[in-house]
Amino acid sequence: MKKKLAIAALGGALVLSGLGINTAFNTAEAKSDHSERKVENVIFMIPDGYSAAYATNYRWYKGESTTMDSMLVGMSRTYSNNSEVTDSAAAGTAMATGTKTNNGMISTAPDGKQLKTIMEAAKEEGKATGLVATATITHATPAVFSSHVAARANEGDIAPQQIENADVLLGGGKQYFLPEAQGGKQKERNLLAEAKEKGFTYVEDRDQLMSAKGDKLIGLFANDAMAPELDREETNQPSLEEMTVKAIDTLEKDKDGFFLMVEGSQIDWAGHAHDAAWAMKDAAAFEKAVQKALDFAKKDGNTLVVVVGDHDTGGMSVGGYGVYDAKTEVLRDVTATGNYMASKLNADKSNLKEVVKTYTSLDLTDAEINKINAEKNTANAINDVISERALVGWTTPQHTGVDVPLYAFGPQSDEFRGLHNNTDIPNIMAEAMNVPFGEENKHQDAADRKH
Predict the structure, then answer these.
(1) Beta strand pairing call for 399-400 and 312-313
(2) Mean pLDDT of all residues belonging to the chain
């Protein structure tokens, strides 16, 4: 193998093989569970845009097996009702309702019928409910569990439904909860005031989150989306790990159990921008959140943790550019997103080489400088150069239709073994929780008949 790992920098020896690294890892640590114990709590974690290529590149980037590796039980098919390549709204709807819909629709069937979500079903059974995301909390994936709109862009129509259906809301998107008079997107309603009347504690930075009390919590840490993990130190925003821990701590107070959805939103955004370092850093942040969920599940004994991407983004490859190699270690030295680096450039880009050196440790060649200067989107051009240095390939700035890995841990996690349609996932979770679900959504869509 020609792969050269910076072992000293990793602080430990790695075990190499043709199948991966650290093959001595104890795969029984988080193995699936054949037991039929009733599940009291479900923690459903979605790394948006995450496919097998991301999982493989992240393993090399980390330098050892990941938390999710030991949880792998199957794969999920991701197509939507009207396309072999789904968007997040349709994929999320499938995983929230058990029904395929058209791209862009939020828990609404192609014929306009509202589709009950697994979170709504859990709430009807008395369970506490929560949503965590690093995008706006009104973005497509958290929206599908908590609202019903015909078009995902209608985030102002999603927000009012969320304060009715969730007990914990943590993420970005404050603008969608405030009236226009206060700089928000709502025409008249002040949803934050309404939330406080409903018993929510409101927080807007990391310090307030860490000290927050109460049974209902709303945290909006940015007017729009939260910062990428690479740029988080520039803010006082909490990490995905911290939001996950606080959500669990809040929801577990309910004696009837809880349903929590946690999204690693910006893995997808990194894929759209071909920003491999951003993708890896946000994958690392997501893994930390998964580990906290696993720690809770192992201690609790009645919690099912399910992890699955909604689709692949960008058509990422492991290796590329005609070379039999992968150099994801290059990405470990990248300390800012391409967007952030582009924001530090002079108007004439005369400091391009210095900026890239500062945030990546790479010395750009004249050819790379010319390539970046020739592109209209400077940030994406920087990302493409870094990706090529790391031998991370991309096929598209959009999504692809490949199957994605499915991970599970806890009681009845063995039910997720094998190749599943994404519509199977909420039905399995509902059955595990003994929550009535699915009859309202009987809607044989064209895609299921065809496929």
Answers:
(1) antiparallel
(2) 91
